[in-house]
Amino acid sequence: PSSHPNASSEPARARTRSPAGSSSSTHAAQRHGGRVSRRWLTPLLAAGVLSLTPAQATTAPPLTLTQQAQRAEVIVRATLGALKTVKEGDVTYQVYPLDVAEVIAGDPATLPQFEGKPALFVLQGTQDLPALTPKQEVIALLYARRLDSPLVGFSQGWYPVQGGKVTAGGPESPITDPAALRDAIRKARGAQ
User: Which of these ranges, 37-41, 51-55, 125-129, has the smallest mean pLDDT?
Assistant: First the structure.
């Protein structure tokens, strides 16, 4: 008799055979005296659980305005153009051309281009992004290369200008004036 908690007096072969007959798990169980080795069981269970878990939304750690400004490759005040859908190979992007009113840092020409203008290329289906609306005026802190989201901090580098105001900074030092936000970004970037 075995000291294994699930052991019985039945022969190992009878315990592991499925009603339909032998299977690969039966063979594995037979090689290990009627039980599946824990070395194999844990990864198999983990793989099964992971395969049942729905895809999670992408998140980024919270970044301060200073961190966003330092990570951004291009920072502009711009208005979003009409949404276009662009397929490149197997990848589909939602594309928003930018009408750049002011360059705060970097070179907008290094951004992906669409119809001769710098543009935001956002991977279609990307979740947890801020609302991107045609004709929306924004101060945008951007990566120059194509990623799921071109916004610094995945969605944090996005400051809509509504009624001539923005919402930025923390509760202890809020920034509502777009010019003050521009100045804070330039200060955070220092000599960059």
Answer: 51-55
